[in-house]
Amino acid sequence: MRPIIAPSVLASDFANLQSEVEMLNNSQADWLHIDIMDGRFVPNISFGFPVLEAIGHHAQKPLDVHLMIVEPELYIERFREAGADTISVHLEACRHLHRTVQQIKATGAKAGIALNPHTSVQLLEDVVADADLICLMSVNPGFGGQKFIENTYRKIEAMKNLIIQRNSQALIEIDGGVNLDNAPLLLEKGADVLVAGSFVFSSADPMQTIVDLKSSK
């Protein structure tokens, strides 16, 4: 199966956000990955509800919303109303992770769980069967353009084994430092979704770069 490609809008040209979204609409991208940062869970601030709504107004593809925020349970319904199709929360930010996953699913959105690079996949043992997506951070969250963490390959294998053991249907998403050099091995290890930000938007031909990532094997 060909990978799902989810370009990260955080790396786009914010001054021309509509045209960037329209470019993605016309590309082979499958989802639009939207990073929401609050300056507390990560040392950066990105989009709020108005920008997400504006992206959703022009996007013709699902919005994969990654919440890098504290107390995400306070805002789940609002992110769904703003256009999120998938909502991923960080295990590290959720005191009651199972409850938050069920809260996401109750809105009609798909529920994702994100893990920081240092967090063991085994902590998902009791909740992975309820998730639709597991986002493994392959860089430290907060900023684009970081170097890929090699330990990610081992974590994908461990995550895949846990998904199989728990009879989960969750997809494995890799977020951070994805490029044409590591994409084939990421997919070989078991990744389903590749998030790419600066690698796509900083390339000379973003649409062709998406095609190339889509063809990785």
UniProtKB/TrEMBL annotation:
One Pfam assignment: Ribul_P_3_epim
Domain of life: Bacteria
Pathway annotation from the record: Carbohydrate degradation
One term under GO cellular component: cytoplasm
Keywords on record: Carbohydrate metabolism, Cobalt, Isomerase, Manganese, Metal-binding, Zinc
Cofactor note: Binds 1 divalent metal cation per subunit.
Broad enzyme group: isomerase
Catalytic activities: D-ribulose 5-phosphate = D-xylulose 5-phosphate
HAMAP family from the UniProt entry: RPE
Alphabetical list of NCBIfam families matching this protein: PRK05581.1-4 (NF004076), rpe (TIGR01163)
UniProt-listed PANTHER family: RIBULOSE-5-PHOSPHATE-3-EPIMERASE
Function statement: Catalyzes the reversible epimerization of D-ribulose 5-phosphate to D-xylulose 5-phosphate.
Record's protein name: Ribulose-phosphate 3-epimerase
